[in-house]
């Protein structure tokens, strides 16, 4: 209870069972040095990983792939916000005014959505998580640190000129929720030669006619989100770097080039091979 009350210094105490679960059920064994990350400890607890990175970098894509590989839930606060927006719940209108302008939602709202999601996971006896989109401010990182131990923070990085193109090319299938990208990024260097290539991630025929674009993926709003990332979220990188938990990963291109390299960086190549063999 003490840990949970610490979540909201100066605000209403959150005494959610999910937060209690989060703080108590987690076995806080971790290493401050960045050796090969453990994917499951002897007690059977799944990883506690966090993805950081600018809008459009691909946090959702890689977090979702790793969550399938490791059998832990991928929890995206952006998705939680969008689900709430799509509902006719009491928060929807308030959220639309914030999200559609690229601003950050208040800690109170984000923590309440996250708590609800964790409570749901509790009923399914989930173990571990890969967080994407949280924490996004130093305050959120402190809140998270107060309730559970994070093993590893993967900071995905992509050149700034590719980020805008990736956000503008992002599409979602309104039927199955699949994420695609129609942008073909070909950036030339000063000598006129191609410097960086990222192929589009095109949808299968079934999804092609059902694609929608996120309302906050317009040029104006993406630029504002990038500005806010640099101001509010970039300091979170230092927060984890200082704790020896930050793994910097420069994306070398699209999924075919980046995924194997990410697995290598995470020491998960064997894991992927075993899963492919048993599939
Ligand atoms: N941890 C958070 N704190 C505050 N607002 C958040 C958080 N996570 C998501 N949001 C809101 O949801 C929006 C979409 O989030 P996300 O899908 O993670 O976007 P991005 O592509 O910018 O990483 C954000 O612009 C913000 O308004």
TrEMBL record:
<dbReference type="InterPro" id="IPR006259">
    <property type="entry name" value="Adenyl_kin_sub"/>
</dbReference>
<comment type="similarity">
    <text>Belongs to the adenylate kinase family.</text>
</comment>
<dbReference type="Pfam" id="PF00406">
    <property type="entry name" value="ADK"/>
</dbReference>
<protein>
    <recommendedName>
        <fullName>adenylate kinase</fullName>
        <ecNumber>2.7.4.3</ecNumber>
    </recommendedName>
</protein>
<keyword id="KW-0547">Nucleotide-binding</keyword>
<dbReference type="InterPro" id="IPR033690">
    <property type="entry name" value="Adenylat_kinase_CS"/>
</dbReference>
<dbReference type="InterPro" id="IPR000850">
    <property type="entry name" value="Adenylat/UMP-CMP_kin"/>
</dbReference>
<dbReference type="GO" id="GO:0005524">
    <property type="term" value="F:ATP binding"/>
</dbReference>
<keyword id="KW-0808">Transferase</keyword>
<dbReference type="GO" id="GO:0004017">
    <property type="term" value="F:AMP kinase activity"/>
</dbReference>
<keyword id="KW-0418">Kinase</keyword>
<dbReference type="InterPro" id="IPR027417">
    <property type="entry name" value="P-loop_NTPase"/>
</dbReference>
């Amino acid at each position: 209870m003490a840990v949970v009350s610490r979540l909201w210094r100066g605000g209403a105490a959150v005494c959610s069972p999910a937060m209690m679960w989060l703080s108590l059920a987690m076995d806080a064994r971790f290493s401050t040095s960045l050796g090969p990350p453990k994917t499951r400890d002897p007690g059977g607890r799944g990883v506690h990983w966090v993805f950081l990175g600018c809008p459009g970098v691909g946090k959702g894509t890689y977090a979702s792939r790793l969550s399938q590989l490791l059998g832990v839930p991928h929890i995206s606060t952006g998705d939680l916000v969008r689900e709430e927006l799509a509902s006719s719940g009491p928060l929807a209108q308030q959220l639309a005014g914030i999200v559609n302008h690229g601003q950050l939602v208040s800690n109170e709202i984000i923590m309440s959505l996250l708590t609800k999601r964790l409570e749901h996971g509790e009923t399914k006896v989930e173990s571990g998580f890969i967080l994407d989109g949280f924490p996004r401010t130093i305050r959120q990182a402190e809140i998270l640190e107060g309730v559970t131990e994070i093993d590893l923070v993967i900071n995905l990085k992509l050149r700034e000129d590719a980020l805008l193109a990736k956000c503008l090319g992002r599409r979602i299938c309104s039927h199955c929720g699949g994420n695609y990208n129609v942008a073909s990024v070909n950036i030339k260097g000063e000598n006129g030669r191609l410097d960086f290539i990222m192929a589009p991630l095109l949808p299968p025929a079934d999804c092609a006619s059902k694609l929608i674009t996120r309302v906050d993926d317009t040029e104006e709003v993406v630029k504002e989100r990038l500005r806010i990332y640099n101001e509010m979220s970039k300091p979170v990188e230092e927060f984890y770097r200082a704790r020896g938990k930050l793994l910097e990963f420069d994306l070398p291109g699209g999924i075919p080039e980046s995924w194997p390299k990410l697995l290598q960086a995470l020491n998960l190549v064997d894991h992927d091979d075993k899963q492919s063999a048993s599939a």
